[in-house]
């Protein structure tokens, strides 16, 4: 099935450039030029990925992202941001963005990021569908849900991939580079270190009994992370 992408960007020329590059790469796409139109399009049809500009007139990109995640949490989201907006990027990740691109970028670079989102590493055995953690916390990786304190917290696809990777490699320290290459599928891992740490913080908030004193996703100083068991 052709992957469908919603491009949410108020700069019409940029949106059209992105759409043309996506079409050329074999994706189907639709455009929305403000947040309200984006949410309407999202409710009407199926999208596998959303390219979401954060600076939109009316409803901001972050507000749109928040609403998207309450509607459906398995869609992948790549946010577009001005280079100076690091705090927006951090908030975007906290709200469940999977990746970001800083402006200016070429549509070809964006297409490469979109491809990376759809390319999941071949797993050599079945994923662990359920994890039972201390504190009565249950994680359902197939459904991307964390059950704790009588509530269900959604995991983003990226968080699910990171958790699965850590659990799968519990016998060793997982470096940030491992995660960037194997989970993000970046071609080289000498940038973006913060991206990993931001996601780990978000994941700890959902799965750790005491997120401020993490015991499950342990930091190995100067090396990376290790799953507790
Ligand atoms: Ca904009």
CATH superfamily of the largest domain: Response regulator
The coarse silhouette is globular
Whole-number tally of structural domains: 2
Q: Spans of 5+ residues with little confidence (pLDDT < 50)? A: 121-125
Could you tell me the mean pLDDT? 87
* Strand runs, count: 12
Order of helices and strands: EHEHEHEHEHEEEEHEHHEE
What can you see in these coordinates?
With 229 residues, the protein is of the alpha/beta class. The chain has 2 domains: 121 residues, Response regulator (Rossmann fold, 3-Layer(aba) Sandwich); 98 residues, Winged helix-like DNA-binding domain superfamily/Winged helix DNA-binding domain (Arc Repressor Mutant, subunit A). The protein has a 5-stranded parallel β-sheet with strand order 2-1-3-4-5, sandwiched between helices. A 4-stranded antiparallel β-sheet has the order 6-7-8-9, with no helix packed on it. A 3-stranded antiparallel β-sheet has the order 10-12-11. The longest helix has 15 residues. About 2% of the residues have low confidence. It binds calcium ion. Calcium ion binds next to loops.
